[in-house]
Write a structure and sequence with these properties.
alpha/beta; 17 helices; globular
């Protein structure tokens, strides 16, 4: 790899390489040997650095190419391992290289934001056929069938309630908050203001669904129970469904402690097995776990359980339709290590799937992606600050780096505009 002399300054010391348990992290422990592909990855790295204005630092203080002051930094500690991982498996290898400690950045979110902007342009148009050398298809075992969902959901949500409590606010809400806004409608996000921002989001979603005294409400995806609590406090009668036993236990306890056992019930139940008739159905960021082949069944369930005149309010992370289509059969690092079996939909996919398979139609869709970027920043900062407590819970350094990358990657997607989040109203009848 050709290098350029670094500016006259001392190179920062490399952080300790995390110990990798090969039984727990087999593909992180294994460094592939793919010399031809590594050479291609090296050329691609130089191109990306030039086009995105990155500073790529090598061991000893040299740089791959000069960059403007303040440029995002990719700091390679083990260049050979990095290039062979990326050469063998593309972005999955890029993520595994971070998990293994092959690279770092002093501002991980800034680096990933630069890479997330127009991701389809990272590879030259004439060489995109090379994707088939490293792009994998999602494993059939991770498909979100009834049995698959029972395996997939616990892999994320049953890690530990104590783990999530380290970085979530006291409401234990794990979806985009809605902050007050300042000049230019920029979200005014602080840690102390996060609980109120989560309540503002929940209340807006309940308002969208028309939830009030006596409303029969079905919630698909309980989380840790905050939405069910807010709905019960309004006088609604709530049935909430989850596949996470950890969430089930804590949500039931919180409901009992609040005195709402007579108004809110949490069931360990797949959405496909939902029973009854409801005036309103609410689901916050659960559709992302459904999987594209199962979206028609998901919307048919919503239509089946919705009483005449009822309203469905969804909160969904979304991406542009062309990017969703391009990535819909691609196994990604996030799917492999964080959220197996899912796919982020586009708003168009939500509208078209509902219209094609049900009587439901999208009536309104409000976006507030910048608020999710700020929500994720607060979570990421909190998670990083509690690294010692993460370790005390029994999670190793590779897990910690996995979640640092996941939170920063997600934040970068919203900052770059690659991702958005919508609150969506569906009712039966023509769209407006």
């Amino acid at each position: 790899m050709t290098t350029t002399p670094a500016a006259p300054r001392s190179a920062p010391p490399a952080p300790p390489t995390p110990a990798v348990d090969p039984a727990r992290w087999p593909d992180v422990a294994r460094v592939p040997h793919a010399p031809l592909r590594a050479a291609v990855a090296g050329r691609l790295l130089r191109r990306v650095a030039a086009h995105r204005g990155l500073r790529v630092e090598l061991p000893g203080g040299s740089v791959l190419r000069p960059a403007a002051p303040g440029a995002p930094v990719l700091r390679l500690h083990h260049p050979r391992a990095f290039l062979h991982r990326v050469g063998e498996s593309g972005l999955i290898g890029f993520g595994e290289a971070y998990q293994a400690g092959d690279w770092d950045s002093p501002d991980l979110t800034a680096l990933l934001t630069a890479l997330a902007a127009a991701p389809q342009t990272l590879v030259p148009a004439g060489t995109r056929w090379l994707r088939r050398l490293y792009v994998q298809r999602p494993p059939a075992a991770e498909s979100s069938t009834v049995d698959g969902a029972r395996r997939n959901i616990p892999r994320h949500y049953d890690l530990s309630n104590d783990l999530f409590a380290l970085f979530l606010d006291p409401t234990m809400t794990y979806s985009a908050a809605l902050f007050p806004t300042g000049p230019g409608r920029a979200p005014l996000a602080t840690w102390d203001g996060l609980p109120a921002a989560q309540h503002r989001k929940i209340d807006r979603l309940l308002d969208l669904a028309g939830v009030g005294p006596g409303t029969r409400l079905l919630e698909i995806g309980t989380g840790w129970g905050e939405l069910a609590l807010r709905a019960a406090a309004r006088g609604a009668r709530v049935v909430s469904l989850t596949l996470s036993e950890e969430q089930l236990a804590l949500a039931r306890r919180r409901i009992a402690e609040a005195g709402y056992e007579g108004r809110a019930e949490v069931r360990l139940c797949d959405y496909r097995a939902a029973e009854g008739a409801y005036d309103a159905v609410v689901s916050a960021e659960m559709i992302e776990a459904v999987g594209r082949p199962f979206w028609p069944g998901y919307f048919r369930t919503l239509d089946r359980v919705l009483a005449p005149g009822g309203r469905v309010a969804l909160q969904a992370i979304t991406m542009p339709h062309d990017r969703m289509t391009a990535s819909s059969r691609t196994y990604t690092w996030i799917l492999k290590y964080v959220f197996p079996g899912g796919l982020i939909p586009s708003l168009r996919a939500v509208s078209e799937t509902a219209a094609r398979h049900t009587a439901l139609r999208v009536r309104a869709a409000d976006a507030y992606g910048p608020h999710y970027a700020e929500t994720l920043r607060l979570w990421r900062e909190r998670f990083t600050a509690h690294a010692g407590q993460v370790a005390a819970l029994g999670f190793d350094d590779v897990f910690r780096r996995t979640w640092e990358l996941y939170l920063a990657h997600s934040e970068a997607g919203f900052r770059a505009g690659y991702l958005d989040v919508h609150q969506i109203l569906l009712t039966r009848g023509a769209p407006s």
